[in-house]
Automatic annotation (TrEMBL):
The gene is murB. The keyword Cell cycle applies. NCBIfam families: murB, PRK00046.1. Pathway: Cell wall biogenesis; peptidoglycan biosynthesis. This is UDP-N-acetylenolpyruvoylglucosamine reductase. The keyword Cell wall biogenesis/degradation applies. It catalyses: UDP-N-acetyl-alpha-D-muramate + NADP(+) = UDP-N-acetyl-3-O-(1-carboxyvinyl)-alpha-D-glucosamine + NADPH + H(+). The lineage of its organism: Bacteria, Pseudomonadati, Pseudomonadota, Gammaproteobacteria, Enterobacterales.
């Protein structure tokens, strides 16, 4: 079957690619039915939210199941708010909704593109807060068996841009998430420029505005310039490697972790290789944020891939540090390990 359905508007990189079919899924029943049809046709499938963390390497010879399961409700206990949110809701709109209803705690995660259902997949995080910290549960559907199950926060095994969903449950669809926010709100101001705010006076709305302003200034808007946010994860190295690097590069930007490892700022490493603005074909390293690769001028996926490989090799050669993509790579048959095509 020919892949004729365009995916260009379904990925924030704005890469030209096609799929055999794209099915909008707005209920569990439609998901189960769409999955059965896909299986009967013996076609591969992928789940997609807003496409803000994927790179289509070529046409996808299968069916895209597009998450549009909506719904939002909340209850309260004496100490907490408990939100139940359909996976197809937009993350940033959820952040705005909670603020408007005086339910506080999501403000640091403002303006992260994408769907609510994708938030647990890579444990989204920004400005010192990760989804892990606010997750109560994740509801999953196995479309093969039509079984639903609820995973507790602990079951999700969240890590840095990682969760159980990247390793198991790969054929399961996140249909809803539960979020728990404390009524007794404490501002989270440990990260970067947020430290400038006064913890005794600041409001959640001010943090929201501050985060939005920084992000608008620093990150290219995917509606104007195709991109998928941070292309690479911040690499984590052991204490000894970090100590040696700090000695050799006193300006190194790094974040010590609770487990003794040290996270290095991938953007700093790329910047030190003088790659800001570097271009291959229509793809470029963003000139203000080295961690973001952009579709500057009708880039093909090959342009993005060649640029990513160049960045990977330069950083490896300069620092002996091996970057790993945060973005998910989709080939003709489905998702593939990005290291298989990068290194
Ligand atoms: C400008 C920009 C800034 C960004 N900033 C940040 C940031 O600060 N922090 C951060 O963590 N991320 C950031 N990202 C990355 C992105 O926003 C997140 O990864 C987001 O959660 C992706 O949501 P999505 O709906 O677009 O997922 P998609 O890109 O559609 O999918 C991502 C992966 O999740 C899977 N998936 C999606 N929905 C489901 C589902 N319902 N069930 C099962 N699997 C599913 C897909 O198969 C795919 O493998 C940024 C991206 C952009 C473009």
């Amino acid at each position: 079957m020919m892949p004729l359905k365009s995916l260009k508007h379904l990925n924030t990189f704005s890469i030209t690619a096609h799929a055999v079919d794209v099915i909008s899924v707005d209920s569990v029943n439609i998901l189960i039915e769409a999955f059965r049809n896909t299986k009967n046709l013996k076609l591969p499938f992928i789940f997609l939210g807003s496409g803000s963390n994927v790179l289509f390497l070529e046409d996808f010879l299968g069916v895209v199941l597009l998450n549009q399961i909506k719904g939002l409700s909340y209850t309260e206990s004496e100490t907490d708010w408990h939100l139940h949110v359909g996976a197809g809701e937009n993350w940033h709109e959820l952040v705005c909704y909670t603020l408007q209803h005086n339910i506080l705690g999501l403000e640091n995660l403002a303006l992260i593109p994408g769907s609510v259902g994708a938030a647990p997949i890579q444990n989204i995080g920004a400005y010192g807060v990760e989804f892990d910290q606010i997750c109560e549960y994740v509801d999953l559907l196995d479309p093969c068996t039509a079984d639903c199950q609820r995973l507790s926060r602990k079951d999700c095994r969240f890590g840095y841009r990682d969760s159980i969903f990247k390793h198991y449950y790969k054929t399961c669809f996140v249909i809803a998430v539960g979020i728990k926010l404390k009524k007794c709100w404490v501002p989270k101001l440990d990260y970067g420029d947020l430290k400038k705010l006064d913890p005794f006076k600041v409001t959640a709305k001010e943090i929201f505005d501050f985060v939005c302003a920084i992000r608008r200034n620093k990150l290219p808007n995917p509606l104007l310039i195709g991109n998928a946010g941070s292309f690479f994860k911040n690499p984590q190295v052991d204490r000894d490697t970090a100590a040696l690097m700090i000695k050799n590069y006193p300006d190194l930007v790094y974040y010590p972790q609770a487990d003794g490892t040290v996270k290095l700022a991938a953007g700093w490493l790329i910047d030190q290789c003088h790659l800001k603005g570097y271009t291959i074909g229509g793809a470029a390293v963003h000139d203000r944020q080295a961690l973001v690769l952009i579709n500057k001028n009708h880039a093909s996926s090959q342009d993005i891939l060649d640029l990513a490989r160049h960045v990977y090799q330069k950083v490896a050669f300069t620092f002996s540090v091996y970057l790993e993509p945060e973005v998910r790579f989709i080939s003709a048959e489905g998702e593939i390990n990005p290291m298989a095509v990068l290194s």
